[in-house]
Amino acid sequence: MLTNDKQISKLLNLLLRHSPETAHLNMDKEGWVSIDELCTNLRLYKGINIDIETIRYIVKTNDKQRFRISDCGKKIRANQDHSVSVDLGFEAKVPPEIQNVLFLVFCLIQMTKL
Questions:
Q1: pLDDT (tens digit, 9 = 90+) per residue, 28-40?
Q2: Which single residue of 31, 71, 106, 108 could bond 86 by disulfide (Cβ 3.0 to 4.6 Å)?
Q3: pLDDT for the residue numbered 34
Q4: How far is it, in rounded angstroms, from Cα 64 to Cα 67?
Q5: In terms of residue numbers, what domain contains 94?
Q6: DSSP labels for 13-82?
Q7: How far lies 40's CA from each of 47, 82, 95, in Å?
Q8: How many angstroms separate the CA atoms of 21 and 2, rounded?
Q9: Which CATH number characterizes residue 23's domain?
């Protein structure tokens, strides 16, 4: 039985980042899981009673901002460090200082070809 917020947060972390299948959760390609399904499946498959308000509280008070609730308020996902394949919708960008270095390397390579 989970007795405090830290234990609940660790459980959510495990399920939403690494092993949703252990609670029979249906995770979409962006890592979202229905909060209703999460609560129901934790009760059915793990014998753990957690309500939606507790989950909302954990998300709101987590100091590392590990979780996010969808705009509609019906889904939850982990924000980072998944070992399961998810698309968080972030665009990969090369920092400007790296772009400058790459440009200089390219120029030097071109100069050596002359």
A1: 888 899 999 999 9
A2: 31
A3: 97
A4: 9
A5: 1-114
A6: HHHHHT-GGGGT----TT--EEHHHHHHHHHHHH-----HHHHHHHHHH-TT--EEE-TTSSEEEE-S--
A7: 10, 23, 43
A8: 20
A9: 1.10.10.970
